[in-house]
């Protein structure tokens, strides 16, 4: 099992639009049907992992976004309306244990957002950081850092051009560990 964070970002480094939506949603190529490699990526995944902020909009979606994946959510409370099959926990270490206990050999798609990616990186549990860089400039929005520490220990693994002008870059983070988001190392 590998924990693989995969997220889209603008060419000027923002993972959300200025209004807070995931970067991909602003890309005309994605809106018109390009998958940006997500189908191939998901073929190796059996679970989705995310923070409560990223999870909550799914509860009002007309379509459940992860029909084929076990879903794990990190958050202080279980949001109202969360389906029974979703596992939630307020403690990232305990959630990681639950993910490992349930694992049948497939990978885990760490969807985000930045704070949750930073949290699992701080635990030394982030295996891959996969970025889909979109051919767009946002001029504002949320960045991956500082939630994911700048010392993420990235080792380049691969790159490929995607239809529509996006570029996928895959880094290994195995063996690296950052600070818990919002907490300096001295307070961990
Ligand atoms: N570009 C992309 O592909 C992409 C992908 C995913 C998300 N996003 C964007 O990312 C934004 C959200 O990112 P975010 O970083 O603010 O939020 P997030 O990581 O989705 O969720 C943050 C929440 O997760 C819980 N959490 C995280 N670390 C924790 C820890 N160490 N201990 C306990 N709980 C912890 C907390 O829940 P509680 O508050 O309940 O304690 C925290 O408020 C959204 O705007 C979304 O659109 C973009």
From TrEMBL:
Residues folding into a coiled coil are none
**Pfam families registered for this protein in UniProt:** RibD_C
Signal sequence coordinates: none
Q: Which SUPFAM superfamilies match?
A: Dihydrofolate reductase-like
GO biological process terms, semicolon-separated: riboflavin biosynthetic process
Q: Which domain of life is it from?
A: Bacteria
| GO terms for MF | 5-amino-6-(5-phosphoribosylamino)uracil reductase activity
Q: Which residues form the Bacterial bifunctional deaminase-reductase C-terminal domain?
A: 2-151
| Name of the molecule in the record | Riboflavin biosynthesis protein RibD
Q: Which organism is it from?
A: Streptomyces pseudovenezuelae
């Amino acid at each position: 099992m590998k924990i693989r964070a995969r997220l889209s970002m603008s060419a000027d480094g923002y993972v959300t639009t200025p209004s807070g939506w995931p970067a991909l949603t602003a890309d005309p190529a994605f809106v018109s049907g390009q998958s940006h490699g997500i189908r191939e990526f998901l073929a190796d995944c059996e679970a989705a992992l995310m923070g409560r902020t990223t999870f909550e909009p799914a509860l009002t979606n007309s379509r459940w976004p992860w029909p084929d994946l076990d879903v794990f959510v990190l958050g202080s409370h279980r949001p109202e309306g969360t389906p029974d099959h979703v596992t939630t926990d307020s403690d990232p270490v305990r959630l990681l244990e639950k993910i490992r206990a349930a694992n049948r050999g497939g990978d885990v798609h760490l969807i985000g957002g930045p704070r949750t990616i930073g949290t699992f990186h701080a635990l030394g549990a982030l295996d891959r950081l996969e970025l889909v860089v979109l051919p767009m400039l946002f001029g504002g929005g949320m960045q991956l850092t500082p939630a994911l520490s700048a010392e993420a220990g990235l080792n380049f693994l691969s790159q490929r051009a995607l239809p529509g002008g996006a570029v996928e870059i895959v880094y290994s983070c195995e063996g690296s560990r950052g600070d818990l988001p919002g907490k300096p190392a001295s307070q961990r």
